[in-house]
Amino acid sequence: MQTAVATAKVLIGGEWRESDAEGVFEPENPATGEKLGREFPLSRWSDCDRALSAAVEAAHALEKTPPEKIAVFLEAYAKELEADAEAIVQAAHEETALPASPRLKDVELPRTTDQLRQAAAAARQGTWRRPVIDQAKGLRSCYAPIGPVVVFGPNNFPFAFNGVSGGDFAAAIAAGNPVIAKAHPLHAYTSQRMAEAAGRALKTAGLPAATVQMIYKLNHENGARLVSDPRIGAVGFTGSKGAGLKLKHAADTAGKPIYLEMSSLNPVLFLPEGLKENAQKWARELADSCTLGSGQFCTRPNLALAIAGDATEAFMQELTAAIASREPHAMLSSTTRDQLHESIEALQQAGATLLTGGKNVPGKGYRYSSTLLRVSGKNFLKAADGLQREAFGNEVMAIVAADEAELLQVLEHLEGQLTGTVYSAASGADDALYGRLAPVLRRKVGRLLNDKMPTGVAVSPAMNHGGPYPATAHPGFTSVGIPTSIARFTALQSYDNVRPDRLPDFLRG
Amino acid sequence: MQTAVATAKVLIGGEWRESDAEGVFEPENPATGEKLGREFPLSRWSDCDRALSAAVEAAHALEKTPPEKIAVFLEAYAKELEADAEAIVQAAHEETALPASPRLKDVELPRTTDQLRQAAAAARQGTWRRPVIDQAKGLRSCYAPIGPVVVFGPNNFPFAFNGVSGGDFAAAIAAGNPVIAKAHPLHAYTSQRMAEAAGRALKTAGLPAATVQMIYKLNHENGARLVSDPRIGAVGFTGSKGAGLKLKHAADTAGKPIYLEMSSLNPVLFLPEGLKENAQKWARELADSCTLGSGQFCTRPNLALAIAGDATEAFMQELTAAIASREPHAMLSSTTRDQLHESIEALQQAGATLLTGGKNVPGKGYRYSSTLLRVSGKNFLKAADGLQREAFGNEVMAIVAADEAELLQVLEHLEGQLTGTVYSAASGADDALYGRLAPVLRRKVGRLLNDKMPTGVAVSPAMNHGGPYPATAHPGFTSVGIPTSIARFTALQSYDNVRPDRLPDFLRG
């Protein structure tokens, strides 16, 4: 494309304005490798600085805004997204190569608007404030907005985790915080289109114009500076461990709460009695789950664990065949594919054996062959760090332990995970073993599953999309599930002997 | 004292054992400067290592322990402390120079046992688990113990914040976590005596012997290693900002949640109409509060703010006289006094003027003259960082702003605080001004007070003994107030499609 295109604008202080850019980037269609004919800015610090000052003003204005208006905004935003669904889905499809239907149109967009509406309900009900009144001591407490929230969205969900529309966004807004969204450059136009919808909804609801702001890209130094700026309240981040840990270091040093969802291998245990009956069925379920959407989900199963035996060998044969037969789809970018390949090479160097896959697929689109690795429990224990390198994509590694004791040792050596799953015999024949393994797995994971793959993450008040480090940076919080996820963006405030007419409404009496 | 004394033992794995010590220290009586004839060990890493391994075992055993037993332990511990009250109070009095009565015997010890009993009630009720059941989606969630908790107690509360008996201890235990207490060397024997009581209570309740462990002192390197050890779940710390930030860096880098209560100036605003009526009364209240216990409270008022005018000058005169007339008591140690003096010198170098005090008091005991400093709002704004240096002790600095606008600017420049207080006219004559100032102060503090000094910290479910950085490291948590404080030592756990008989009792149905 040689047409001269205007660089997209950034949304700061309620206006789409020219970025003070230090460069530009041109997104491409990962299914074809062709440029999409659009240009987006790499913002200088001055863009952040303006957004931060506007966010502070908005935060103060939001303190005086009735929750009803926030709810109206979130609902109006959901409606605006639905009204523009066709264009948004098309944009995301072009930018990510994810299927327009069912994935984007029928699953992710409805999930996103549902999440916004759940956040609206939570804003209206105000249960997140958890008011406590101790009349005898004249003390009252509640949770309050924490201040401007910076949200970094990931590459793999253009809607549901997008900094300008996803779970962190909805949770931060529900508690009355303005959001500065750092869109992911891999779906810049999708984000622009959504931010435009947000802008219209802000007008409908009459919220401060700087309640929602958005920039597209920052260099690392400015990213670190943004999360440690005195003007912010907290940060939400979903993405890679490498990028996440850099931001965490900056935020920690500045004393800013940062919530990161970084990495997870989502181990799935297949217990021996159940495997005897279900080797084929479970192998196919696993193959489907770890290759779905090219495995580009935080909760795809990346590790399968079993105890050596005939049933396990049968399972491994079925699994090898099933994985080999799954057609790879285009990944989100050439970088995503390159990183997957590097990880698979590194896992082999650390001691895993390649059973199928392990290479780029030629032709259009950044496709990678669905991959299965295998390692013994003994060899895993020799290199437990290297063999827990995340391979983000359509890959799974089977760890076959010699016996129960070795399997327990493997579990003890697992890092913190978002999820952990146990498949076992319906008859109860594995139950005694489950009783010995599950407590160890339970301590390592945010969500424990039985008999189903972990990839789906329901937006439910009982969801935990979180887990011990390094899955996240704090095991007490979830990034999915309303109202629980809202707690991340709140500060505890007490009122001691404060005169009645000076108290917030919900703390009177 | 030249009597050969045995070095005290450390409590590890349920036994009082010889420390693998790299040195010893001999506590003194700060009221006399004389050694107390006791010797305590500076532990090597091997002491920590043993304690950590024992704590992991205890944590696993506690997972299977009925909450009733934990409650029984906490109540039995409270009883044991009461039974040994005379000796414990005497020990603390000798080690800290704090008055045996009313402070230690009639205030702090009852507060401590009350806190243990409130924690017992919370353990029994289990509300801290906050169970959520989503039957439609087959999802359940609750909070669970986070794992072994390391608690660093401060110098200023030998009972109520002691690592082996205070608020962090009670909260961590209530959630089913074992505690490794790092006693404060300034009340080592008091801590030993309390840990002995805890040991007896563990036997009464039949809890794992390593549920409570204690060491006395560590070098900085081992302290940092302890808070970043993979075997721990979280850390609670109360103490200086310098020590706290070092531990925070280590824990953050290892991905371990650390809760710190570090520093606070606790600003108190005196509004002009009220000052006209109350200059003398308020000056005396402030003088009493900031000199109480030699000002060695996290919540002592260290900053007084007012707008220039005749009433403020009258207030300043009263305050100068009142502060000058308060007899200083012995401080906790020579170091505490030295640091207070250094801070007062530094505040003067940064622009404050000394009105009274500012020097060591000769004679027995580490006493420091009660001190009042003054600075204009304009000069404060020129050196807002240097003038917010904490002076831990019987000192207060008055900031006199030229007008409301300057006072607002001063408030905007305040760091995060545990508390912020506004005194105003009972008539309502200051209410319009309150309405403009309070929102700014509210954002800076964990607890907002009206018309009373902030020094008292009630153990109430509505208390917030926390606040924005650097008062603490996360504004969403409190270290005082049950059950709220328990949340710090818990992890969120979901159960997805888990078979009913495998669920915790309280998540069935």
Descriptive report:
Two copies of one chain form a homodimer. Chain A is 40% helix and 20% strand. The radius of gyration of chain A is 24 Å and the shape is globular. The first copy, chain A, is of the alpha/beta class. Chain A has two domains: 53-262 and 472-507, Aldehyde Dehydrogenase, Chain A, domain 1 (3-Layer(aba) Sandwich); 267-450, Aldehyde Dehydrogenase, Chain A, domain 2 (3-Layer(aba) Sandwich). Chains A and B meet through strand 7, strand 8, helix 8, helix 14 and strand 22 of A and strand 7, strand 8, helix 8, helix 14 and strand 22 of B.
Explain briefly what this protein structure is:
Chain A contains 14 helices and 23 strands. Chain A has helices at 45-63, 67-83, 85-96, 100-125, 167-174, 188-205, 220-227, 241-254, 272-291, 310-325, 334-349, 377-382, 404-412, 431-444, and strands at 10-12, 15-17, 21-25, 28-29, 34-35, 40-43, 132-134, 139-145, 149-152, 179-182, 212-215, 234-238, 258-261, 267-270, 303-307, 353-356, 360-361, 367-368, 371-376, 395-401, 417-423, 445-450, 490-496.
Helical residue percent band of chain A: 25-40%
Per the CATH scheme, the topology name of the largest domain in chain A is: Aldehyde Dehydrogenase, Chain A, domain 1
| Overall average pLDDT of chain A | 97
Distance between the termini of chain A: 66 Å
| Largest interface chains and counts | A-B, 67 and 66 residues
The helix tally of chain A amounts to 14
Number of strands of chain A: 23
Strand order of the largest sheet of chain A: 16-19-20-15-14-21-22
As an assembly, this protein is homodimer
Beta-strand portion of chain A reads 15-25%
Instruction: Sum up the overall morphology of chain A in one term.
Output: globular
Based on CA atoms alone, the radius of gyration of chain A comes out at 24 Å
The main sheet of chain A comes to:
7 strands, mixed
Structurally, how many domains make up the residues of chain A? 2
Low-confidence region ranges of chain A? none
Based on secondary structure, the structural category of chain A is alpha/beta
